[in-house]
Structure formats: structure tokens, C-alpha cells
Design a protein that fits this description.
The protein has a single domain, classed as Rossmann fold (3-Layer(aba) Sandwich), CATH 3.40.50.300. It is 45% helix and 15% strand. It contains 11 helices and 8 strands. The two termini are 14 Å apart. The structure holds adenosine-5'-diphosphate (ADP) and magnesium ion.
């Protein structure tokens, strides 16, 4: 099992949209996928097709040590297992953050309870970095996708936080979302970002802006089903293919290793042991 965190240093970059889309696209490629909403905005469930915002989830487990973190688990139409953050008041949100600060292994311990096959994947949607939720997710992640639109505020905050992000997760990739190449400003910002990142972090993963993306969400459908030949659908499929290949390569590397670990537990319906 691999954990992939979606993080960003600005709000509204597309973390939740991409987490949901990639969860569904990887599930459709035959992978067992668990999606965790680790953001008090609690919106991932809506993206995954759950009608009402779920009231209980990870937050209630953070607030009450007697509640299992996976007590509220959902499965969407594509078979993605999903645990919401849950609804929290401002005061409760502060308590959740305090517990996460006091217990830096909280999310890691939770993920260790998952009984996914070795080719399974956990996708972690996160609150905007810096936050306790993003820190936890980066700490646990085998790969972090740092989502940014090619816009000045998002890219300036990303460059300012880059060293901290790299220190938190060694395997970081930048995903440029809402790309509109006809805009001169975006081209300039991308050039600035590319120079700041250097050769170590190529801007290879890109998802174009498509005004139909929020419209598909509003209809409760997927852009890649509504308009499979659109540029953004092509980009999302390409990103899912890239992740699928990365997951496969991680598996091969593990099998090729001279000291292989013990056999994994058999597949189970319940994500928790
Ligand atoms: N590639 C895209 N093209 C057009 N709109 C997008 C794209 N990606 C995300 N959006 C829209 O941007 C808004 C913010 O996305 P969201 O995933 O909620 O961001 P975050 O989780 O980072 O706060 C949503 O309305 C979403 O539909
Ligand atoms: Mg979000």
C-alpha cells in the first residue's frame, strides 16, 4: 500500500477536485483505493458523490479517543472507500489541531491499521499548508502532489514553502492545475516557478483549466465521462496513468529488493483491521 498526499500552499488550487478524480480513475484501473478527507472543509465527500456533507469522520475520532477513525466509512459508486473529516465547530477544530500537534504519529498510526493489498493506494486530501493536517499527510506520504495554479499568489507561496515541503516529504511532485496557456501572465509565472524549482522538480504534470469541471461537479458527474475527449479529461487520465505506473514501479522495486518483507494480508472489504 502506498500513500499519496495532495497538498498546496494556497486555497482553492484543486486539491479536493484532483483527489476525487484520481481516486475514481485509479479505482477504475482496478486498484483498491481509500480516500481520506484530512481537511476541516469536509468537501471531499461531495466531490465523490455523497449527497449530504457527512457529519462524522476523522475529526470525531480526534475529539474522542474512544471513537475509531474509520467509524464513518463510505463507499462511492466506483468502489472508492472514503472517510470524511466530519463537521466541526471552530472550537472543536482547534482541539483537533491541538491533538494532531501533540501526537505527530496520529495519522501514521491510523494508516498502519489499514489492511489494503500491496498494490492498494490511500489518497490524502489535506488542509492548506501549513496546517497540522498537511504536516501529518506529508510525513506519511510515499509521494506528495503539490497542486498549484500558475498564478502569482499560489506560486509565490509555493516557492516560499518549497524547502519545508521537501524536508517534510522527500518525494514531491508539482502538479500545475487550471493551466490556460493563452494567458501571458500564466506563461510568465510558470517560467518563474520553473526557475525557482530547478531541474530537480520538473513541471511535467499539468491539468488545463476547463470551465466544465465545476459544472460536472454541480451535476454530480465526472468531466472525464461527460467530455472524455476534452484537454482536461485527457490531462486527468494522463495523471492517473502516471500514478498507476508509479505505483506499479514501486511494487516491482519492492519485489526486486533482495530483502523482501513478509507476505501481505489478503484483501478485505473493510479498510481497517
Ligand atoms: N482544472 C480545473 N479547471 C476548472 N476548474 C477547476 C479545475 N480544478 C479545480 N477547479 C475548480 O476550482 C475550485 C476549487 O477547487 P477545489 O478542489 O475545491 O480546491 P481546494 O481543495 O484546493 O481548495 C472548484 O470550483 C473546482 O471545480
Ligand atoms: Mg479542498
Amino acid at each position: 500500500m502506498k500513500a499519496i498526499a495532495l497538498v498546496s500552499t494556497a486555497g482553492g488550487t484543486g486539491r479536493t477536485t484532483l483527489t476525487a478524480a484520481l481516486a475514481v480513475l485509479l479505482a477504475r484501473r482496478g486498484r483498491q483505493v481509500v480516500a481520506l478527507d484530512f481537511d476541516p472543509q469536509n468537501l471531499l465527500g461531495a466531490q465523490l458523490g455523497i449527497d449530504a456533507l457527512p457529519t462524522t469522520g476523522l475529526a470525531q475520532a480526534l475529539l474522542d479517543a474512544g471513537t475509531a477513525w474509520h467509524a464513518s466509512t463510505w463507499r462511492n459508486a466506483d468502489g472508492v472507500l472514503f472517510v470524511p473529516y466530519g463537521q466541526v465547530s471552530v472550537a472543536d477544530s482547534t482541539h483537533c489541531d491541538a491533538r494532531l500537534a501533540a501526537e505527530p504519529r496520529w495519522l501514521g498510526d491510523a494508516l498502519a491499521e489499514l489492511d489494503l493489498p500491496e498494490d492498494g493506494v490511500v489518497l490524502l486530501d489535506t488542509a492548506r499548508y501549513p496546517s497540522q493536517q498537511a504536516e501529518h499527510a506529508l510525513r506519511c506520504a510515499d509521494l506528495a502532489l503539490c497542486v498549484t495554479p500558475p498564478e502569482p499568489v499560489a506560486c509565490t507561496t509555493l516557492v516560499a514553502r518549497l524547502a519545508a515541503l521537501r524536508a517534510a516529504c522527500a518525494n514531491l511532485r508539482i502538479v500545475v492545475n487550471r493551466l490556460h496557456p493563452a494567458r501571458d501572465m500564466q506563461r510568465d509565472v510558470l517560467a518563474m516557478l520553473g526557475a525557482a524549482l530547478g531541474d530537480g522538480l520538473p513541471l511535467a504534470q499539468r491539468v488545463h483549466l476547463d470551465v466544465a469541471m465545476p459544472e460536472s461537479f454541480a451535476r454530480g458527474t465526472w468531466l472525464f465521462d461527460d467530455a472524455p475527449h476534452s484537454q482536461a479529461s485527457h490531462d486527468l487520465q494522463g495523471l492517473a496513468n502516471w500514478l498507476d505506473a508509479w505505483l506499479e514501479a514501486s511494487l516491482d522495486a519492492r519485489h526486486d529488493a533482495p530483502l523482501a518483507g513478509p507476505a501481505m494480508a489478503p484483501r478485505r472489504e473493510d479498510p481497517s483491521s
